[in-house]
């Protein structure tokens, strides 16, 4: 069979060639399930001048990739003990990482120029892992070895992004920096979004039911710093919800009447067992983390053969599981990231004969949009949605969590720093525009709100808790735990117009500050002492050149969390306003 690459597959191959022509840095490409990554592998194998090793972590994947490759009338070796073949003679070799690492002497060939790692989210920075042993070995024979990773899930809870730099596929747009932490794969050179796949009918559309009759409310549960829930808390919340669970499963069964295969994602193992008990006997099975391999294979086989209609699982089947006939996904668990949500829904989007769509019912109030970008941090609250915030310095279009009003106007966003990067002479540098920042007392440089030390002059940043503690201990100091702020027009004793800003604490105490705006110097002082920190959207140019303009735009400003003032002879002088406070003291409950 002669194969024909789809347009995006051609683009993926081109981006790989382009990248490795100028760099030996390991790179990855992101293709959703169903995008036909084996065709991309085949094309790379076909055009490679040197030898190619394609690694996967399980024999099934080795076998599957190899079979696809040979179906295109190409020849390749298989090196996998599990498959009973240890052959590395052909130009292209498909191997399982465990078998290859145990037989490195059979790979003493400096001809390997390309190493492809399938499901590369399994590669860590861990130096002693099997993957690294293979990589070190091949690199010792060929220091210019190119390493390409393939994955459908470049963002994982608890790990974060698998790579540092996301290249833009649009020449006119900037790339995005995902993390400054070291990653084995430095660059993501190609990513195909799920929306493209559905729009172009490479995947089936999803039909969503967001507000089912009964649903769980997980919003009060606490989460760890990675945004994950604890199994214990989930169990205790679900224990009293037997009735709801029963009703939910009744709805699932009803909706499944004309459906072929339903996957149910439960919150915990106990929850999954309970759910299974409510499903029709003989038609449902359960797969959990410790289901023995053989039993698991048998269950999955029966499900794929459609001898079972319902498959209940707890997060073990979110990736790498493929049953194209699945046309109902029921989500009964809180889903901590957009990526995870997309992975879950993605289980039901494969094309299959006579399949029109996949019904997705979210019983957990996750309310994610299937096509949302991954923001890379936990959703701060239920009101937050992904917003696009352009950078005034470099033009990069940032995706942050934010809050919009009914007109769709931005009320607040949680971005701290522009995520665009600039590339000069092969060096990538993050744009230094900050939406939220702490100013260095010594040099005035803008620092991240969590910075310990100024990035310009290295002076330790004074901890806001320290400032509050000192102020609270001083007799002539006052701390306003700011619960509200007003901005009004006012006049001084000479009758000159000015702005009066009043900060209130919860008990009604207040401090005020005043700004005149007649001269450029006064306007500058307003910006430095107030606007720079209080403007909600610093990215939007705002010239504070008249009092009426400030009054009419008072909604563009936000209140600080704390105001520290010192008693002068006749008035309280504001020493400091703390915005974006993160620390031990309680903030005021918002009055708004
Ligand atoms: Zn920027
Ligand atoms: Zn400094």
From TrEMBL:
Q: What name does the UniProt record give this protein? A: Carboxylate--amine ligase
Provide the alphabetized UniProt keywords: Ligase
This protein's species is: Endozoicomonas montiporae
> What InterPro entries does UniProt report for this protein, alphabetically?
Helicase/UvrB_N, Helicase_ATP-bd, Helicase_C-like, Helicase_Restrict-Modif_Enz, P-loop_NTPase, Ribosomal_zn-bd
Q: Give the GO molecular function terms.
A: ATP binding; DNA binding; hydrolase activity; ligase activity
- Which SUPFAM superfamilies does this entry report, sorted A to Z? P-loop containing nucleoside triphosphate hydrolases (SSF52540), Zn-binding ribosomal proteins (SSF57829)
Q: Which residues form the Helicase ATP-binding domain?
A: 18-172
What lineage is on file?
Bacteria, Pseudomonadati, Pseudomonadota, Gammaproteobacteria, Oceanospirillales
Q: Which GO terms describe its cellular component?
A: cytosol
An example of a Gene Ontology BP annotation on this entry?
A: translation
Keyword set includes DNA-binding: no
């Amino acid at each position: 069979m002669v194969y024909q690459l789809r347009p995006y597959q051609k683009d993926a191959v081109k981006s790989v060639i382009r990248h490795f022509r100028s760099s030996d840095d390991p790179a990855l490409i992101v293709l959703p399930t169903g995008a036909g990554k084996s065709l991309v592998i085949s094309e790379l194998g076909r055009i490679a001048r040197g030898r190619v090793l394609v690694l996967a972590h399980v024999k099934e994947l080795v076998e599957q990739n190899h079979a696809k490759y040979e179906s295109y009338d190409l020849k390749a070796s298989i090196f996998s003990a599990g498959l009973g073949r240890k052959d590395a003679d052909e130009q292209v070799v498909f191997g399982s990482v465990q078998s290859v690492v145990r037989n490195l002497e059979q790979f003493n060939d400096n001809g390997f120029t390309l190493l492809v790692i399938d499901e590369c989210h399994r590669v860590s920075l861990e130096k002693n892992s099997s993957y690294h042993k293979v990589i070190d070995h091949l690199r010792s024979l060929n220091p210019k070895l190119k390493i390409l990773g393939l994955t459908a899930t470049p963002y994982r809870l608890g790990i974060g992004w698998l790579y540092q730099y996301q290249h833009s596929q649009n020449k006119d747009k900037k790339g995005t920096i995902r993390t400054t932490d070291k990653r084995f794969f430095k660059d993501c050179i190609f990513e195909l979004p799920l929306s493209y796949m559905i729009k172009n009918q490479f995947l089936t559309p999803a039909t969503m039911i967001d507000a089912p009759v009964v649903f769980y409310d997980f919003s009060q549960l606490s989460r760890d710093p990675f945004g994950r829930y604890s199994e214990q808390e989930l169990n205790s919340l679900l224990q009293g919800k037997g009735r709801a669970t029963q009703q939910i499963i009744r709805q699932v069964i009803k909706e499944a009447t004309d459906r072929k295969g339903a996957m149910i994602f439960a919150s915990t193992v106990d929850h999954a067992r309970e759910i299974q008990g409510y499903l029709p006997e003989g038609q449902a099975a359960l797969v959990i983390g410790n289901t023995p391999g053989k039993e698991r294979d048998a269950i999955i086989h029966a499900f794929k053969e459609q001898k079972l209609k319902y498959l209940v699982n707890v997060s073990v089947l979110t990736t790498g599981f493929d049953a194209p006939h699945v046309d109902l996904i029921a989500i009964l668990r809180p889903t901590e990231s957009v990526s995870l949500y997309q992975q879950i829904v993605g289980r039901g989007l494969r094309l299959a004969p006579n399949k029109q769509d996949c019904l997705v019912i979210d019983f957990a109030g996750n309310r994610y949009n299937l096509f949302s970008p991954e923001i890379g941090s936990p959703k701060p609250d239920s009101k937050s949605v992904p917003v696009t915030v352009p950078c005034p310095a470099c033009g990069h279009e940032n995706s942050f969590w934010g809050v919009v009003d009914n007109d769709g106007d931005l009320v607040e966003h949680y971005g701290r720093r522009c995520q665009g990067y600039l590339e000069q002479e092969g060096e990538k540098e993050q744009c230094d525009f900050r939406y939220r920042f702490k100013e260095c007392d010594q040099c005035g440089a803008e620092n991240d709100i969590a910075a310990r030390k100024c990035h310009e002059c290295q002076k330790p940043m004074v901890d806001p808790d320290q400032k509050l503690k000192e102020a609270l201990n001083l007799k002539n100091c006052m701390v306003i735990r700011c619960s509200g702020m007003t901005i009004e027009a006012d006049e001084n004793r000479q009758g000159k117009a000015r702005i009066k800003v009043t900060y209130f604490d919860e008990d009604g105490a207040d401090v005020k500050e005043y700004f005149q705006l007649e001269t450029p110097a006064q306007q500058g002082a307003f910006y430095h002492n107030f606007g720079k920190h209080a403007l909600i959207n610093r990215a939007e140019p705002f010239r504070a050149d008249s009092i009426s303009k400030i009054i009419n735009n008072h909604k563009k400003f936000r209140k600080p969390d704390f105001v520290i003032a010192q008693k002068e002879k006749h008035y309280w002088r504001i020493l400091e306003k703390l915005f974006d406070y993160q620390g031990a003291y309680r903030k005021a409950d918002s009055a708004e």
